[in-house]
Amino acid sequence: MSSKDNPIQKSNNIADRIKNNSSLFVNFIKNAITASPKVQKNFLDVSAKVAETVLKIIKEADLIVDLDYQGKDFWFQNRDKISCFVDGGIDKLSLLSAAPLSIRAGSYIVQPNANKPNEREYFEESMIFLGDLYDPKNELYDLADDDYEEDQMTNKKKDAARIIFEAATLVKHILLNRKFNYCFLHGPLEATAMPFTVPGFPTFTKFAVENLMPFYNKKNLDPVSRHFVNVYLDAINFIKKSKFPIYGIVETSNSAPYIKNLLFNYKNKGIISNKNFNDTLATIKKYKITDSNLLEIILSSNQALKPIEVKKQISGFGVTSESAWEDKMNQFPIIHMGYIKINDQQSPIRIESLHSPKKLTKDYEYILATSKLLPNYGFPVGLNVVDKFAKIPNWMSRASRNYYATHLLKQAIRNKDQNTISLAVKILSKKARSWGNRPRMGGNR
What we know:
Blueprint: H1 7-10, H2 14-19, H3 22-30, H4 37-61, E1 64-66, H5 72-77, E2 83-90, E3 102-110, H6 117-120, E4 121-130, H7 147-175, E5 182-186, H8 206-212, H9 228-239, E6 246-250, H10 257-268, H11 274-286, H12 291-298, E7 303-310, H13 326-331, E8 335-341, E9 349-353, H14 360-371, H15 381-390, H16 394-415, H17 418-429
Parallel strand pairs: 2-5, 5-6
Antiparallel strand pairs: 1-7, 2-3, 3-4, 6-9, 7-8, 8-9
Helix pairs in contact: 4-12, 7-9, 16-17
């Protein structure tokens, strides 16, 4: 498509770019009921001003890359490439004590020109775990006085379980010397570890760590070594040794790490003043402007931003100065973060890697091509496929929950434990909420 046919490429005016990017306006439409026109216009004006500042820096740094999309010709030329797509799923309904009963991470492996049909694309249940992931000798089964705090802790345990299993899958592929050309993870390649540094967060069991991270066998598996932060840090450092490129792909960005780090780098170089840096940062924070908001305005379809170095683990969220985990946070590797805009209907997707890509354009063009296999989708299709494969279906979750509760009840009756009997009865008798059980309009049925 020529620049004459593409109004986004034709105009360098930020206001025109805003008008020509639809998904940004979808957010305004959704908020139209609660946000007045004055507020909406103010947000547009602020976004435009910040985008102008960022665009100048991006052009100055020569960060924009035009990617060549060739459609079916691309796949003919890359038909021998082997790609692996990784995602994790957890049996959320079975988290009675926040110790996952069942969790798995799956891999979807594709090689278009493979000789046998079953080798062209296939699934692997790369990591499967049934049982207690967290050590019951810790505070795992202690209930907090505050129900909200208990729910927050349970959610953190779920997230930590999924993150560590996805990392363990990447570790497994590296240990097995898999001959992949590319490996893609659904989500950030290095997750933010701070939420799991809260006091009382339980350690993993020895059995879990030994099976998830085989290279841990020769280490002293004391409780501190089995804490999420230590296990995850070792996993990330091991993943960094991979001989094949591994990318984390994030669909939507709810923050602005790329923009903030870009502004910080240019402040350090003396190109922008401390005042302008602080004012722009304050504006981004006040209006909750994200990378997706700004880069959707700046980038055109089939364009990418070169990766910049980003420190993912920073002080805050419970990790403050002189914290016991502060030193560990500083040991996590720097992430190389870039963006690709697939089309004009979706926001740019975030690309993370542990190394600066050696073949940036070729790698990003591969990600672009996999994201255009479905019309107006804008995300690697392989990650969508493995996401559905890795999820544990609700019928299986409900069945496992009921079987576990029945087992718990029988065990409690044998031991005459009234508290456990009461818990098991509640689980067995609890019915899921449904729309059919809710009152009609007006409260009458």
